[in-house]
Design brief:
Elements lengths: L11 H14 L12 H8 L3 H13 L3 E4 L3 E4 L25 H10 L6 E2 L12 H15 L13 H13 L10 E3 L1 H13 L5 E6 L3 H9 L3 E8 L3 E2 L1 H10 L2 E6 L13 H13 L4 E4 L24 E6 L11 E4 L4 H11 L5 H12 L2 H27 L5 E2 L7 E5 L10 H6 L2 E2 L1 E2 L12 E5 L6 H41 L1
Parallel strand pairs: 3-14, 5-6, 5-8, 8-9, 9-10
Antiparallel strand pairs: 1-2, 4-11, 6-7, 10-11, 12-13, 13-16, 15-16
Helix pairs in contact: 1-3, 2-3, 5-12, 7-8, 7-11, 13-15
Length: 503
């Protein structure tokens, strides 16, 4: 390594910046990579730590690196076009039934196709699989429980696991005990139970727009209608638009991702989350909180659950281990608030109980401390993957494309040019070994046709990079074809006039 030229007229901190730029240009440093520590670089260059820090602060000011508390400085994606909030009036939206069921089915089927890079599913644990640890713990559990592993468990779930969950909520200030928690078969069953506690067929459920397509399909399956509420790219559902919707429509309940939105990756502040709870409780409207991504935050502190701010017991928190530990275990839970008795009754009628072996294993996982250590590593890898993928999209997609900047989770929300319909080349992408989620499935009324959701919850490798490049090529090809088609149509429309002028 060439040392800095201390005889040069250039400031030493600027030479450090030039060095970082060179490292990036040659591919030694990639978006998401951690920069050398202040002490390491100062020792290598034989300069003071404050000089290196001055360079890093300047790079941070320029938006080229980011500082993470107690971790260091990291290289950010260059030229990533960040998706901004669009001015919108949504008060005219009416309750509707889902219009994109066929495409939802296709996205689900694509997840299990062989020789396909699955960027259409949000499966964060792929970035840091805990399978070996869980397998070891499950073997240990099996040696202790014997025949109990195949027996029915209590409808409310394992008391030890509920106790572990209660402790975690208590650490965040939520005053609950194990009896307040109901273990379910994943978060999807928890959401289903919550909806059935507070609404019936034909009732209107307010959802974020865009929102996770699983919520849309669940509401439709229960015979209910959805009302889309405009959702801000940075902070989630818009409070002003929600207020308008509450005044104009007979909303029976709200189903929101109050921590981290899927697909936007937006995250409300604790104060904003409290404001939503306060508003809904003024109208006596229940809030069903989809909280599955709350452990995958990129900020310094974990977002507080909306449950913390409820004074009337109208908040029902639904979550699971699917995004953080083991999606195949199908182990979730619900904090039903004042609807505890209804929730327990529906659980007994719907699925009787949740498999015990998985619950016992997860209890051991949490108790050992391995779960929290895993989460710490998982968050770091997801942050890294996010920066890498944003950089790849910026490099290989058309320059007009805009990309969300998530504050957590495992997906990117990508807006293509207005004339691009991502559903049109979904099958073509599958033929080339790549799956993604077209934007229309994130809206019951079929909005977001020119959007796509891409997951960075992957084990990063060359295949993933090639898959992103393939999607970029498809967007380019579709854009060109669409423009040509539009131009030809305009030409045909003008041709009679042109012929008349010639005559």
């Amino acid at each position: 390594m060439r040392l800095l030229d201390k005889t040069s007229s250039d400031f030493l901190y600027q030479q450090v910046i030039d060095f970082i730029e060179k490292q990036q240009q040659t591919g030694v440093l990639l978006p998401g990579d951690k920069l050398p520590s202040l002490r390491k670089l100062s020792a290598q260059f034989e300069i003071s730590v404050p000089t290196v820090k001055q360079a890093y602060i300047e790079l941070e000011r320029q938006g080229r690196v980011c500082a993470r508390p107690q971790s260091g400085y990291y290289l950010k994606a260059l030229q990533a076009r960040t998706l901004k909030t669009r001015p919108s009036q949504w008060s005219h939206c009416a309750p509707t039934m889902v219009q994109c069921r066929s495409m939802i089915e296709q996205v689900h089927e694509a997840v299990h196709l062989p020789n396909t890079v699955a960027l259409g599913i949000s499966n964060p644990i792929l970035a840091n699989p805990p399978d070996k640890t869980l397998a070891r713990l499950m073997r240990s559990v099996l040696s202790k429980v014997a025949e109990k592993a195949v027996s029915y468990g209590p409808p409310t779930g394992d008391v030890k696991l509920r106790m572990q969950l209660a402790f975690r909520y208590q650490d965040q200030g939520v005053a609950i005990n194990p009896d307040d928690i109901l273990i379910t078969n994943g978060a999807q069953e928890a959401l289903s139970i919550a909806l059935q506690c507070v609404a019936q067929r034909g009732d209107v459920i307010a959802v974020e727009s865009p929102c996770f397509f699983g919520m849309i399909e669940l509401i439709e399956t229960l015979g209910m209608k959805t009302l889309e509420v405009y959702t801000c790219t940075e902070y989630g559902v818009c409070l002003d638009e929600l207020t308008k919707a509450l005044k104009q429509h007979p909303i029976k309940a709200c189903l929101f991702s109050t921590a981290i939105n899927n697909p936007l990756g937006s995250m409300k502040t604790d104060r904003q989350r409290q404001a939503i709870v306060s508003l809904l409780e003024q109208y006596d409207i229940p809030l069903i909180e989809d909280d599955v991504y709350s452990e995958l935050y990129f900020s310094e502190h974990k977002p507080k659950p909306a449950q913390l701010y409820s004074e009337k017991g109208l908040v029902m928190t639904c979550s699971s281990f699917s995004k953080t530990a083991a999606p195949g275990y199908r182990t979730g839970w619900i904090l039903p608030g004042k609807y505890e008795e209804q929730a327990k009754r529906i659980k007994r009628a719907q699925s009787c109980s949740t498999p015990m072996l998985q619950q016992w294993t997860l209890n051991e996982y949490i108790q050992s401390g391995d779960y929290d250590r895993h989460l710490c590593v998982l968050r770091k890898k997801l942050i890294y993957n996010c920066e890498r993928m944003r950089a790849l999209i910026a490099e290989h997609f058309p320059k007009e494309v805009c990309i969300s900047k998530p504050q957590g989770g495992s997906v990117l929300w990508v807006r293509c040019q207005s004339h691009v319909n991502t559903s049109d080349f979904f099958q073509q992408a599958l033929e080339q070994g790549v799956s993604f989620a077209p934007g229309i499935i994130f809206s019951p009324s079929g909005k977001y046709a020119n959007y796509m959701r891409i997951s960075y919850g992957v084990q990063w490798n060359e295949q993933v990079e090639n898959a992103v490049k393939t999607l970029g090529e498809l967007v380019f090809e579709y854009s060109v074809k669409s423009r040509c088609h539009e131009k030809n149509n305009k030409g045909e429309a003008q041709s009679p006039t042109r012929r008349a002028m010639i005559k």
